[in-house]
Structures are given as C-alpha cells and as structure tokens.
Design a protein that fits this description.
Blueprint: E1 4-8, E2 12-13, E3 16-17, E4 23-33, E5 40-47, E6 52-53, H1 55-59, H2 65-81, E7 93-96, H3 98-104, E8 115-125, E9 131-144, H4 149-166, H5 175-191, H6 198-206, H7 211-226, H8 229-239
Parallel strand pairs: 7-9
Antiparallel strand pairs: 1-8, 2-3, 4-5, 5-6, 8-9
C-alpha cells in the first residue's frame, strides 16, 4: 500500500495566514484591526496564531465539525453540476486545529497547509504480480478550522478534486497538472457564487507563491480559453497534461 498525501497551499488575507487554533473572546487593550475585513475593533476573537476577528467575520467562519459536514453535500452537489461526481465516494472529512494540522503535515518542512488529503490504493494481484483490480481509498480529508466560509468551501472543493482524480483511470499526473486542475475547480465553483470578493480571490489563486500551484492554475486558465471544461478533463484523461493552445 503506497499512501499519498496532497495538500492545499496556504491562503493569506492582508498578510495573515488563514489558519487557526483555539480562540478566546477578549476586549482589546489597544486599537486593533480585524485580520479579515481590516476594520478597527474593540472586542475580538483572539487566536493563538495571531489573528483577531471581529464578530461579523467570526460569525462567517467555520469552527466546528458539525458546521463542516453541513457544507459537504452541498459542495458535492455543486461539483456534480460541472461534471465532477463525488456522490458515491466515502469522504472522511475532518475539521482540525492548527496543532493537529501541524502534526498531520509534519513531513512538510516549515509549512502548515489549510487542506490535506491522504489517499492510497488497495490492489489485487495475479500470480504474476500484475495488478488485476485497484480499489481507490481516501484515507482522510483534513481542513483547518476557522477559515471563512468562502475559503473553507474553496479549500474543500480543491480537496474533493483530489478525491475525484484518485477515483479516475488517469495516467500519472505531474503535480502541477493535478494541483492546477483542483485549483481550476475552486475557480469554477467560486465564479458561480454571488459574493463580491470572488474576483480578488481568483486573482489571489493565480498569484500563489508556490510555483506548482501558480503554473498549474495558469495553464488550466489558458486551456479554458480554447476548450470547455469537459474537453480539458477528457484530454487530461488521455494524455496526462493540459491541452495545447489553439493558434490562428
């Protein structure tokens, strides 16, 4: 059994990493600003990672396992509308705090992700040690708690993309192809939402500091100018890469 772990890169908002530990409500002794909306506040939810959230932003964040699970069926249904069907998959979603995420991602040096998917195959072999049956297994889907609702949903869509890819009979994908496709799924989902910050969030995805994510999403967006999303998926399933540009 060869277990594979994939992670979602860290989102930042006004220079503050979007991760979270346990929090406490406090009255600010000095003037502080909300780490999400940047408004000056006198009372805040204070986190061990340094974030201070106003009540409005705190109320618009995902803090508990129950809240996370409520979003899962809706996002699975949203993804099915653009051809990504995860409805019959076992998605072991868990919302965890920063300390737990740090432990789960300890193989990633000096980096704590906001989403992490672990997966493997249960293979059956014949007498010649050739694989005759592959059973894809999703071991875990971990999301950092305390993300805003939009960031949580974008991250979960990305991780569901990894789950879906694992269940397909794709050729071996380069990391930038798989991450780019999962980022594209987040963008497609985001474009369907009626939220004012969606344009800025898509731009943030395109400007990731990670070369893998940046290269993958930019290649995916270029392909989307010439091909439908369905055609991109079909091409990747055959070639393992994004389709080439059309040139007049």
């Amino acid at each position: 059994m060869n277990k594979q772990t994939l992670y979602k890169n860290t989102l930042t908002n006004k220079g503050v990493t979007s991760d979270i530990c346990d929090y406490k409500i406090k009255r600010a002794s000095d003037s502080i600003s909300c780490s999400y909306c940047n408004k000056e506040i006198s009372h805040s939810a204070s986190y061990e990672d340094g974030r201070e959230l106003c009540k409005k932003c705190f109320d618009n964040s995902v803090h508990t396992q129950e809240e996370a699970l409520e979003f899962l069926p809706k996002l699975i249904n949203d993804m099915k509308k653009f051809g990504i069907d995860c409805q019959n998959m076992n998605i072991p979603l868990r919302l965890i705090n920063r300390k737990s995420m740090e432990h789960e991602s300890k193989s990633l040096k000096n980096f704590i992700p906001i989403g992490l998917t672990s997966r493997y195959n249960l293979n059956s072999y014949n007498s010649s040690r050739q694989i005759v049956h592959r059973e894809p297994v999703i071991d875990s889907v971990l999301i950092l708690n305390g993300l805003s609702v939009t960031d949580f949903c974008m991250t979960l869509v990305h991780e569901l993309g990894h789950c879906w890819i694992h269940h397909q009979d794709f050729p071996q994908l380069e990391p930038y192809v798989e991450e780019g496709l999962c980022e594209l799924l987040s963008c497609i989902w985001l474009k369907q939402q009626n939220i004012p910050e969606r344009g800025q969030k898509i731009q943030n995805l395109l400007n990731y500091s990670s070369d893998v994510y940046k290269k993958g999403l930019n290649r995916a967006m270029i392909a989307l100018k010439d091909y439908s999303f369905k055609e991109i998926i079909q091409y990747i399933s055959l070639k393992g890469i994004f389709p080439p540009r059309y040139y007049n």
